[in-house]
Design brief:
Blueprint lengths: L3 E5 L2 H8 L6 E5 L2 E8 L2 E7 L4 H15 L3 E10 L10 E9 L23 E3 L2 E3 L2 E3 L2 H13 L7 E8 L7 H11 L3 E3 L2 H11 L3 E10 L10 H20 L7
Helix pairs in contact: 1-6, 2-5, 3-6
């Protein structure tokens, strides 16, 4: 049975989910910290990938080459877009990842977040050309949302939509507005597009679940709530994981 791979940038993002497993073994994957365990006898690997696109790609590639997982679930915190109706503590499931730094800079001196798509593709998969937008499995995203709703989790709202990723964290209201006007995203992170790119390359489905630790825009650390984002995103992760690991007979 192929394992399910859980991944996050830092261990704090995985900690509430890891606490749900009694028997965990620590392993090392290409210099990265990881755990092996089981959910309903289904093998699970939890990978601490490191922050940013390069760490994500290196560690995820190593884990895929070693374990050939059937599914990748990325979990963690992110900035939520207030214009999408997201509040701190809310959770969102991605339908696509958009690399906001990939493209051609506008030929103007005016500051803008807009990028013209690359004149060549980064990869081709199943007849689709990929430049900066990476479509995720919509059916799995729907399953994740349904699993969370069936668990009747309370205290936060659940969203589904486009995520944006970039190596530069947004820190102004004007950039947040520009990103929302261009892409209508619900969340911003640093690692999602790299994970999506890698997963699509290998033909492995990816589900991304993130909790909003803050709102995208002017940085105000006094209003951040990282523990709440970790707790809520991991609660949603476990709801979805239990569904995927449930024996077929139990699913009805």
């Amino acid at each position: 049975m192929k394992p399910i791979l859980l991944m996050a940038a830092v261990e704090h993002e995985l900690a509430p989910a890891l606490a749900c497993f009694e028997n965990k073994e620590q392993v090392t994957i290409a210099g990265r910290h990881a755990y092996t365990m089981a959910c309903e006898d289904h093998p699970i690997i939890a990978l601490v990938a490191g922050p940013g696109a390069v760490n994500t790609t290196q560690s995820l590639t190593a884990a895929i080459e070693r374990f050939s997982p059937s599914l990748i679930i990325q979990v963690g915190c992110a900035g939520g877009f207030a214009k999408a109706g997201v509040s701190v503590g809310d959770v969102a499931v991605a339908t696509e990842e958009i690399d906001v730094h990939m493209g051609i800079e506008p030929e103007t001196e005016k500051k803008s977040v807009r990028r013209t798509p690359l004149p060549f593709s980064l990869m081709e998969k199943e007849g689709r050309q990929y430049t900066h937008r990476f479509l995720l499995d919509r059916d799995l995203a729907d399953e994740a949302v349904a699993a969370v709703r069936n668990m009747n989790l309370t205290g936060f709202a659940l969203h589904k939509g486009s995520f944006v990723s970039g190596s530069t964290i947004t820190a102004t209201a004007s950039r947040a507005k520009g990103l929302f006007d261009l892409y209508c995203p619900v969340m911003e992170s640093m690692e999602g597009a790299a994970a999506a790119h890698t997963a699509i390359h290998y033909g492995i489905p990816l589900v991304e679940i993130r909790g909003a630790s803050n709102l995208v825009g002017k940085r105000d650390r006094d209003n951040w709530n990282l523990p709440l984002a970790f707790e809520n995103s991991c609660a949603c992760l476990m709801a979805f994981l239990k569904l995927k690991c449930m024996p077929p007979a139990a699913k009805g």
